[in-house]
Amino acid sequence: MDVKQLPTLAVLSDYVTVCELDGIKVVRVIHPKATAAVSLFGGHVLSFTPTGKKETIWMSEKADFTGNKAIRGGIPVCWPWFGKAAEPSHGFARTSEWALNEHRENEEGVIISLTLSDNAETRAIWPHAFHAEILMEVGDTLKVSLVSANTGERAMQIGGALHTYFNIGDIHQTSVSELGNEYIEAGERKPSSGTAKFEGEVDRIYTQAAKAVVIDDAANQRRITVENSGNNGVVVWNPWQALAEGMADMENDGFLTMVCAESAVYDRSVTLQPGEKHTLSTEVICK
């Protein structure tokens, strides 16, 4: 995605503007260190390109930017649960309108803060009072943190994921390593070599992954390190051809140039008492 081409609605600072993309508003960062963009719809990172390097984040060419459905690609925010633990699948955060809370900047980069709090619509789905914040730190690296706070009077259980789609040159020449010795696939625990390679659909939760996993993107001659915290698993996903062809918002060959490596609390195992917070984060480092 060429974020520099988006129409500008408002100039917030030397490095930060608000832009329009079809039916959604996007906060755009153009800084000497990197360019980036995050949609207010879904609190959804759309792009991160370190200066002098290739785009790191994969976006579907058929992604829906009307604000009527979740966006395919980028970094969807799956919260307050991951997967089909409840309805809607992956929670409601990725289809909610987030508010721009603040932006800060210096010569090292830009920090964007977006927030979401409970309202009548969210309470109809999930009866809890909460305050969620996404911190997007753009510089030589991209760090995204999801801070969940219980603002109610009773405990709440949460899960979720920063569902990062990485832009790669060729899935056949890609591997993800430092994944540990076990994964869950279709509900079964299986032994792992610690490295995922791709010859068909992969949908796995690695439960013993290192803090930093490594994507070897051989076709682009680069390695992407993904440092996670606050998670209890790393989800690795590629839909392969048959699933891609069944998705209206993904091109048929889109699976060839993307891989997901997600910082996740996959099982709603975080319990927050009133006043408590939890931070789930992922940092993207390209070399």
TrEMBL record:
EC identifiers of the protein: 5.1.3.15
Catalytic activity: alpha-D-glucose 6-phosphate = beta-D-glucose 6-phosphate
Active site residues per record: 163, 262
Family from the record: Belongs to the glucose-6-phosphate 1-epimerase family.
Protein name per its UniProtKB record: Putative glucose-6-phosphate 1-epimerase
Gene that encodes the chain: yeaD
Domain of life where this protein originates: Bacteria
Organism per entry: Grimontia celer
Keywords associated with the record: Isomerase
Keyword Isomerase: yes
GO molecular function, one term: glucose-6-phosphate 1-epimerase activity
Biological process per Gene Ontology, one example term: carbohydrate metabolic process
Principal EC category: isomerase
Pfam families named among the record's database cross-references: Aldose_epim
